Structure formats: C-alpha cells, structure tokens
Amino acid sequence: MAKKRPQTKAVKPQISDGEIPVVGAREPCPCGSGRRYKACHGRAASHAVTELVQRPFEGLAGECDWVALRELVPAATVPLTLKGGLPEGVPSVTLATVLPMAWPALRREDGSVLIGLQNETPSGDISRDLADTLKRALVAEPGSPVAARRAESDGVRLQDLLDPAAAFEPEVHTGFEFWVPDADSAATEVAASLERANAAAIPTVRLKSVDSSYWCETPEKNHLRWVMPYPEEKLLDALARLHAAGTSSLGEGTRLVGSFRAHGLTVPVWDLPSDMGAEECEKPAAEFAERLAGALAAEEPLTADERRARGGLTNRQVTLS
C-alpha cells in the first residue's frame, strides 16, 4: 500500500506589525499566526490603551487647573480653543466639570459643544479619552449627548487638538445652571439631575492672588487646596523646610495638614477656620507663595527637624489618581 503523503496546511504570509489592522477580538489575527486577534496583536493594542498615563494633562495650558477641575471643583466651566479654529456650525467648545446625566459630552441645539471632565474614562489615558469624546461631539447631531466609549490606542490626545497658547481660565459656579440655557424649561430628567447636583455641590472659590488655588467650605471647617506644578520631591522638601520653621500656615487658626497626589501633581491642603472666607485667604496665600519660592530655591540638605516634618507630610499624603 502506498504511503500517504503528509498534508501541510497553507501558511498565510506574515505581515509586519505596522501593517496589522484592528479587527474583532474573536476574529483570526490578520498577522497570519492562526490565533484570535485578542490573544495575539490585540493584546498589545489593549495594553497600550489601558496603560496608565501618570500626567495626562502635561503640556496643556493650565495643567494645574485641569487637575483641580478633574478632582476638586464641583461646578466650573472653561472655554476651549482648538488648533485651527472651530469647525463650521460649532460656535463654541466649553469644558465643564460635570454634565447632566453624567454625559461625557453634549452638543446643544445651537451647535455648541460641552465636554465633561469628571466622567469615568475607559482607558488609562484621560487625555486620549477626552479627545475622542471631543472629536465625536464636534460632529454629533445638534441636541444630542455623546456616549462613552474606549478610545483607539493610537488616537489623538487633547494636546493634539487644543491650542497650547490659548488662556485656560476656569469660571467657578455656585451651581450647575450652566447645563441648560433656561433651567425652568429643562426636561424632567435633566431638571432632577440639576437639583441633585446643586444640593451636593460644595461652595468653592478660585483665588485670584495665586494660580490653581481653591477655597472650599464644609460644615465643620473650610479648606484651601492648591495644585502646584513643582516636582513632588522638591516640593515636599520645601514644604518641610517651611513647616519646621513654623511658616507653613496661612495665618492664625490655619494649618497645613497634608497633601493629595493627583495626575502626577501634588496638592497641599490647609485647614482653615470656618469664619475664614476666600477673600481672607488672598493675602496670606500670596505671602506663602513668596516663602515657598525661597524654600524651593534652597539647596542645602534638610536638617533633622525638617526631615521629621517631611516624614509627617509624607505620611499624610493621599493619592487621588
């Protein structure tokens, strides 16, 4: 009996990684490996999307205020300027801390666009997710919200869409009436969402004397939360120098209690007396900024007291993101 000739399977020609298109997760990988896309080149693509970007707003004008609006401020808006100007039919683009029904973005009836900052983002790069939402909002039908979705791993980021030379000046609001042109005529579900949001909003004011510093009022005491652009280790050294010298407060009854770590930046926090309003913080904050500049310029090693102060500040640091 003649031997059967062993049969071989045809092998698809291999293609380079740069040429492999994105397909469905359960489809065969276009590279010709015979495996499903999700178990082959789709794995790397998924990892690229989910890998955490430590400073997603780095390179944008007002990085510190982006962080504050993302993590600290209940109700605020900022006009955004796009590279190359606005598309036809879009009179304005506005960043908002929160939108009704937690929509990622909304294109109003007049064509203007609102994009929400405090939504959950599906990937590890907030900037890429927000840019994807913004691009879709610019072409959405007027009068419709934009749904959430995962951005492509090679999609553009906010740094690609926004003009880096444009000013970034947040306007802090007492409530969320900016959601709708006429709150009295808002749809029932939007009106209910507006009422809930207003009830939960903590009174907040952005200081004028220093950048990215926000006073807020809580039932027991007030606080000042100040997003700073300096490298974390250098800033903690400077705060420790001031703390050990007894000059880290903002006046009588105030105390530097610790800091947040958020999106790659450090946010020192002060406790304030309940009767100390935002206006009363302006002068002490400006004076503290001068003391901090001197401490940041110091190059000598920390003393024993300063090292103890630094340890206390580090132990009271909380990571928000």
Structural descriptors:
single chain; 321 residues; alpha+beta; 6-stranded mixed sheet; 16% strand
Cα end-to-end separation: 72 Å
Topology, number of strands? 12
The side-by-side strand order for the widest beta sheet comes to 5-3-4-2-1-6
Biggest sheet character: 6 strands, mixed
Secondary structure class reads alpha+beta
Beta-strand percentage range: 15-25%
Rg, Cα atoms, Å: 25 Å
Helix content: 25-40%
Low-confidence stretches: 1-14
Quickly count the helices: 8
Topology order in helix (H) and strand (E) letters: HHEEEEHEHEHEEEHEEHHE
Mean pLDDT over all positions: 89
Form type: globular
Describe the structure.
Helix 6 (232-244) crosses helix 7. It is built from 8 helices and 12 strands. The chain has helices at residues 41-50, 63-71, 126-138, 158-161, 188-200, 232-244, 278-297, 304-315, and strands at 76-79, 93-96, 105-107, 113-116, 144-146, 171-172, 204-206, 213-217, 222-226, 255-262, 265-272, 317-319. It is an alpha+beta fold and 321 residues long. The N and C termini lie far apart (72 Å). The chain is globular and about 65 Å long. Strand 8 (213-217) and strand 9 (222-226) form a beta hairpin. Helix content is 29%, strand content 16%. Strands 5-3-4-2-1-6 form a 6-stranded mixed sheet, covered by helices on one side. Strands 7-8-9-11-10-12 form a 6-stranded mixed sheet.
